[in-house]
Design goal:
alpha/beta; 7 helices; 4-stranded antiparallel sheet; 257 residues; single chain
């Protein structure tokens, strides 16, 4: 689907954030439009997670303005439109007493208590969410017994259960092997292209998705917005500036998903 550049989903103007007399974000302005697929990179401590939390209304900026779907953040009520998978969401205790299906059902508990009876449509939505993230065949498995890549996909399926229009993922690939990462990014790209879900994710490894992302935000207190990631991404330059892993950019060849 084409990108929609009418009203931005997020409209951020001159946002600053300080904590314990430390300046973490400085004069950050950005817009995110419907249908985009954006990577956020930057060094540890550079403010990436803080920026994501500010976009979600979980952290209040020191100054600046944020609008969500044209409304000021404080007035925004439709949070089911936004799916969020925080850092280490897939790191669960191996004895955690829940199946994959239980975990995905939890994505609906903003509307229900966990024990309420779901409608036929809601059950179908849970099944569709598992299918989209390739975990339907694992639905009866205990989540603690899954591999890192399988758990990660189950957590995204949980976020999809509220039918979000935008997904925000904070370092979803921590501790996941390269084969699982590539499969994961192919599924994300499919969500973006076929479901028109806007995707924003924080990562340390842009190499796997260098050809797919529509824009790249580099955050290191200030923000730099790059509209043509393929031209900008160079191993030496990015590694030196942002301390990120870009080992696979040179070998990566574009392929259709």
């Amino acid at each position: 689907m084409p990108l929609d550049f009418k009203v931005p989903i997020f409209d951020v103007k001159n946002v600053n954030f300080s904590a314990a007399s430390q300046h973490i974000l400085s004069n950050v302005s950005l817009e995110i439009f419907n249908g985009e697929y954006i990577a956020i990179i930057g060094p540890n401590g550079g403010g990436k997670t803080t920026l994501a939390r500010i976009l979600l209304g979980l952290t209040q900026p020191t100054s600046g303005e944020i609008k969500l779907y044209g409304k000021k953040l404080k007035a925004f009520k439709n949070w089911e439109k936004i799916g969020y998978v925080p850092q280490r969401a897939s790191h669960v205790d191996e004895n955690f007493p829940a199946t994959v299906e239980d975990i995905v059902k939890m994505g609906m508990t903003s509307k229900h208590s966990f024990f309420s009876i779901l409608s036929k449509e809601e059950k179908q939505l849970i099944e569709d969410s598992m299918l989209k993230m390739d975990v339907l065949d694992l639905k009866e498995k205990m989540v603690g017994k899954l591999s890192g890549g399988q758990r990660q996909r189950a957590m995204i399926a949980r976020a999809l259960a509220s039918k979000p229009e935008i997904l925000i993922l904070d370092e979803p690939n921590t501790g996941v092997d390269m084969v699982s990462q590539k499969r994961f990014y192919a599924l994300l790209r499919k969500l973006n292209q076929e479901e028109n879900i806007t995707i924003l994710f924080i990562t340390h490894d842009v190499g796997v998705i260098a050809d797919d992302i529509s824009r790249l935000f580099t955050v290191n207190q200030k923000i730099t917005i790059c509209n043509s990631p393929k031209e900008t991404l160079s191993c030496d330059e990015m590694s030196a500036l942002y301390g990120i892993e870009t080992h696979s950019i040179h070998q990566h060849k574009h392929h259709e998903h």
